[in-house]
Amino acid sequence: MSKYIDAISSPAELRAIPENEMPAVCEEYRAFLIENAKEHGGHLASNLGVVELSVALHRIFDSPKDHIIFDVGHQAYVHKLITGRKSGFSTLRKPGGLSGFTSRAESEHDPFGAGHSSTSVSAALGFAVADKLAGREAFTVCVLGDGAYTGGMIHEAMNNCRPDLPMIIILNENRMSISKNQGAFASYLSGVRLSRKYRRFKRGTKSFLAHLPLIGKPLTRLFSGFKSLVKRVVYKSNYFESLGLTYLGPVVGNDYAALSNALLEAKEIGRTVVLHIETVKGKGYSLAEEHPEAFHSVSHKESSESFHSVFAGSLATHASQNERVVAVTAAMGIGTGLASFGEQYPSRYFDVGIAEPHALTFAAGLSAAGMVPYVAIYSTFLQRGYDNILHDIALQNLPVHLMIDRAGLAVSDGATHHGIFDVAFLSHIPGISIYAPATFGSLRAILEKTKDAKAPVAIRYPNAAESPLVRDTFYKDGDYESFGVRANFESGKTLEVLFITYGQIAERVLSAEVILSAEGISCGTILLEALAPYEKTAERLRPYLADAERVIFVEEGIKNGGAGMILSTLLPEKKITVAAIANGFAKPASPCDLYDFVGLSPARLAALAHRLLEK
What we know:
- The protein is α/β, with parallel strands linked by helices.
- It has 4 domains: 5-194 and 239-297, 3-Layer(aba) Sandwich (Rossmann fold), CATH 3.40.50; 195-237; 307-460, Thiamin diphosphate (ThDP)-binding fold, Pyr/PP domains (Rossmann fold); 486-614, Rossmann fold, CATH 3.40.50.
- The protein is built from 26 helices and 19 strands.
- The strands form 4 sheets. A 7-stranded mixed sheet has the order 9-8-10-11-13-12-17, with helices on both faces. Strands 2-3-4-6-5 form a 5-stranded parallel sheet, with helices on both faces. A 5-stranded mixed sheet has the order 14-16-15-18-19, with helices on both faces.
- Helix 14 (307-321) runs parallel beside helix 20, helix 22 crosses helix 26 (602-614) and helix 23 crosses helix 24.
- The radius of gyration is 27 Å and the shape is globular.
């Protein structure tokens, strides 16, 4: 049993513990994080680095009256523990359990939900301005990692910041986001250093001058102008102060006393302050300190070949055959598998930081200039670049390859990371071909087929290994070349139930077919590997539909505007029932099987078939 943290269920209880015992409290939280991650998984390295910061924030500020906003949210575990969620930590990152990120629905201490990077300063500015307009006295504090600083929204928000707000922007520099930070701003932050000796000299001199009789105030004003000149000449111009904001730092963020003093100073200033701290990602756990990227998120899944590793390997082969092939990612080199490509072809690998819109338009420029770009982005993050796909890629009919990773439901990460919208929003953009390989072999075949594409191509795949059941059912002969529409029955066979599906949900569909077949119901499944252009897919499907009594299109994506709805419109001669995600964000309120919750488990699909047959 822990001496301190078991008794802390609110910030007030934390504040009741003597200040000199805070380092011990921090060590208990750090030990809890390590043990919990070993047992349940979760984001580890990022949270180990901000233990002292989380404790100090809740000692110095009064949440929820004061607003503490975490960028991304995966560095908020200690914040969750302090604010009364320790007892539910075994449900962390499970459907219906505690979110792995901040969530307004989960606690009044989470003023703003987060799952995507670089939103914190914009949101914090909104809170601070709203408080000022309403006459409320409250501080707004946002915590962002320097990885988030590569995102354009941060700079848009900083440009809009006002110096007269009680707002503190904590820039947590740990030299890592998920992949190593890339870009000029990451380099700039590593070089921003206002010496502590300079700050002590400034404070001491101002105090001395202010106490001189008669001439003290005029000399203080003169000194302020002179010290600004000295700082520009000797210490170089400070980006944040050039924006009119007060800058403090850098401060050692894992030194509780130093950090606490800096936060108190920032609070005392009472204006918009940028507090620059330096922390060690993975602090207190040697393996995580040495390999922070590997311990960013801890999982108990056995490592195996995955769709993104197959993609990266295939792309390297294409690159060896075509010097115009280039790869682009947005701070997800490891997650998308492209880091290995970068090791082989460093001059043709571009990690642009957390900047998905830029990544897409950059790729459009590469394509327009004659290169063959492959942009690998998680489905949930691709949403951030919709305009860039629409206007910069599709409107100009540029053959950019959109490699859409993490397609489908994100069981651990939840609503902010579900890859369930890409098919719907891409399907309504003219000219894009959409593919959904369900096996490694089909992914390789699609990459080969589209390598000389003359128009935009989207290839979506899950964060998983291939399903042996799907592979052995649809690819018995090892033929991956004739992809498009595959069936596990002969055309012309009369069926009571026909399933049509695509992607990783195919395994659950086949399991539903097993349930129905055991009950004597004749059924079959069609696997689609190509979705758009839909007119072509509809023509390929038409011969299979005539002899089916009931047709169910199963889709691990949103129903409205999805592939099932589009194809049912193109095939009016046959009623097609669409089984897809109809409840918006697929966000259960209590622990459950996520696929069962959205109606896509084998049992729920079999039950749907029964209801249709009874009509």
